[in-house]
Write a structure and sequence with these properties.
By secondary structure, this protein is α/β, with parallel strands linked by helices. It is about 50% helix and about 10% strand. Bound molecules: (2S,3S)-3-hydroxy-2-methylbutanoyl-COA.
Amino acid sequence: MNELVQLTKEKEIAIITINNPPVNALSPGVAQGISDAIASIENDKQVKAAVLIGAGRTFVAGADIKEFGKMTSGKAQRGAGLLPLLLSIEDCRVPVVVAIHGTAFGGGLELAMACHYRVASPTAQVGQPEVKLGIIPGAAGTQRLPRLAGVAKAVEMCAGGNPVGADVALELGIVDRLIHGDLLEGAVAFAREIEDKPIAKTRDRTAKLGTSAQNAPIFALARDTTRKKQRGLKAPLAAIDAVEAATTLPFDEGCKVEQKLFTECLFSDQSRSLIHVFFGEREVAKIPDIPKDTPLLPVQTAAVVGAGTMGGGIAMVFANAGVPVLLKDADQPALDRGLSTIQKNYANSVQRGRFSQSFVDERLKLIRPTLSYDDIAGVDMVVEAVFEGMALKKQVFSELDRVCQPRAILASNTSTLNVDEIASATGRPQSVIGTHFFSPANVMRLLEIVRGKQTGKDVIATCLQLAKKLGKVGVLVGNCRGFVGNRMFHPYRREAQFLVEEGASVEAVDNALYEFGMAMGPLATGDLAGLDVGWRIRKEYRHLEQPGIRQPIAEDRLCEMGRYGQKTSAGWYKYDANRRAVPDLEVANLIRAWAAEAGIAQHEPSGDEIVERCIYALVNEGARILEEGFALRAVDIDIIYINGYGFPAYRGGPMWYEDTIGLGKVYDRIREFNAQYGAHWKPAPLLRQLAEEGRTLADFGVERAAADYI
Ligand code: T1G
């Protein structure tokens, strides 16, 4: 026993309590503490049964991810050092009952499955989320789970990484009983019930392992689904291989197969990148000049002004989180359109099984339409989502300033406009903030939170906390044109257009980025969002274009022809009745003609060059944003791109990816592009500085976070 694990007794029942806040991770000392407790129980003949439980808000949320970077392949080979402990529990002379509350994830579920019985509180969740970290269960989870839950469910849980609730776990046989009321009391009572029963070891259970004939279609389907849904990820396929080994090999042999696959995954770039993302999604909520105990403002009620596509989606986000929301628009027809889109979206979610009908009915009751500003006077937060024009937004904010209660948060969903200028339409700029949702707002996880010059720290802290409540990842950014995401997306898409004008086909550019792991190619993304959106902004800001900087020509020409993308069934591609993109020879010929007219030298860029030019354009602009202070850390940019722009998480985000390639190498390549393709490739000074100093963007990110703020 030690400070992390206590052993107590209630008459003949021993109680082992794990106490390692915040999530009882199996940090160094925890496994040893449990092992010592089991050894002590082995020698205490008065003990008839034992209960293993976690103190605090959750049972064990897994191995300590912070330790992975220090793990040797030897330790990895021993299941993160857990296998001997799990065998000692399973071979204990008395039955061990585990009591689960909160989450039993990864090593936590593996620990639970090595116990002889599992009881849980009704709100508990169990799962093997390791694939989300680019690894697989490494402590016999892929061997014990199919023995308890059956092969199909074990494959789904280990390859997909999603948890199941206690009620489902009971149905599956992972859990033996749900405890309503005090968990420890219920677990001790359960232990008394079974203390004289024969001990059943999970590893000896084979009834649910099926036959190879029964299992073959399960594994084939799982591999097929995984290749489609988790494109590019290696760990899910490894998890399937490990579960398959459980059905074909004795337990110990199956464990060896699992260990080998676990070790291969653990020391992979994908895993390092996904662990970077795991901690990054938590790091972005920490703002150096906003202390953890900054008082938060209440957000019990909300309102959304503008019932268009974005406004409707944002209203759904609040309702889905249980926050009553008023939806305002200027006239009834617009309001009706907005509401019917919301109802359609919810109906789709029910059809796809994302939500139950009763859940949707409850949510719809939380969305109340209104035509009057007076109705929103009392709400805690307003999100303005009207047309992207400064004059209209300022008019809305002056109305909000007039009607809203003094502590209300006034947020704008603008994606490009100056938040300080919007705030100047009010007498309370400290209450004004940007909350840039991504389309579709009820699906995309990213929330870019834009800090204005006078935005209050309580308003920022509240919005960061609220993002989590709304199921979003909130990232704080500075108030520059296009903020972080769109500002970087511009040179990324511009480079894609240059590549097409220089001779690459539209589909070659998109396929190269798709194969790289982007959710969609840059040109197809333009067609999805609507090419006219960028065209209008380019026309509005034509006066800001720097002389001598090359500008793309093709997309403007396509827009002049009325080819706005999917919405006009023609853009870079033409679209069939099912909105499927079809390469368009007419566009290819037009581009060749426009390029000849503009005297653009032609060549056939390779797939590697296409990827380098598009991704390094992101990195170069990202470095500028970092040095100008509009993003706090390199990881903030990574989290923005993974959750808002379809950048593959297993590459860690553009800035992490650049560090993986090597900053010096990327900097040299950018200089080559600068020489070959023009001034728009001028390297960011920060890249030159770090390259000369042999440092990385991650290093800079850490120092920056310690120095000054957005
Ligand atoms: N290891 C280390 N730190 C962890 C951790 C872990 N497993 N889980 C959470 N933390 C930290 C987190 O960084 C944050 O720190 C704080 O705890 C609160 O977390 C052998 C090899 C459990 C659902 O993948 O999914 O077991 O920011 O903000 O929203 O096969 O944390 O405060 O400094 O996320 O309430 C498998 C990971 C590991 C689960 C709670 N387990 N954790 O969510 O709090 S691999 C996982 C979570 C493994 C075995 C293998 C969530 C949570 P800080 P939080 P939350």
